[in-house]
Amino acid sequence: MARIGIFGGTFDPIHIGHLMCAEQARDACALDTVIFVPVSIPAATKIDPVLETDDRMNMCKLAIADNPAFDISDVDIVRGGITYTADTLADLREAYPDDELFFITGSDSAKSLPKWYKPKTLARLASFIAVDRPGAELTDDEVAELSDQGFTVIPIRAARMDISSTEIRRLVAEGRSIRYLCPYPVCAYIQKKGLYQKGIQ
Fold first, then answer.
1. Model-wide pTM > 0.70
2. What is the tens place of the pLDDT at every residue in 39-57?
3. Are 150 and 126 in contact (CB under 8 A)?
C-alpha cells in the first residue's frame, strides 16, 4: 500500500513555493508520491485560470521532471467545469483503490473543511495534510474538533516562501525577471511562448 499525496491548484504558473510545499509534505508524512492535479476552474473563485490547460499541464510536467517522487494527473481537466476536491478524490480513489490518499492544503483552508463541498465524502476518501500558513496555524483544539467531525488532519510546519502566481504574472507583464521564482524550465517555457505578457493578471 502506497502513501499518495495529492496537491491541487491552478498552477498558473507553478513556482518554487508549490514545489517546496509538496516536498516538505512528502518528507514530513513519509509519502511515496505526490501527484500534482491542475484544476479546471477552482471552486473557491469560480474564475477561469489565465492560461489554457495545456500550458499549465506542460509547465507542471517541466517543473517536476527531475523529482521521481512527483507525478501529475489531468483528472480535473478531463472532467472539466468547476473543480471540487470531493470529485478529485473520488476519481483518484478509483485509480488507486488500495492506497492511502493524503490531500495537501493550507492550514487556513483546513480550518473550513466541514464547509467544503461534500464534507462527508472528503472525510471518507482521504486524510488531510495541513501546511502551516502564517497567522493561521491549526491549534490542537481545532485538530480535535475536525477529528470529531470525521476528518483526519495532520498539521505540518514548513519553510515559508512568500511567492504567488499572481505576483509572478505581474512581474512577467512588467518585463521583469522571474528567475529563481519558478524552475528554470518553466521560466524558459513562459519566455518562449510569450505567456502572461498581454497585461497584468
1. yes
2. 988 887 666 678 889 999 9
3. no
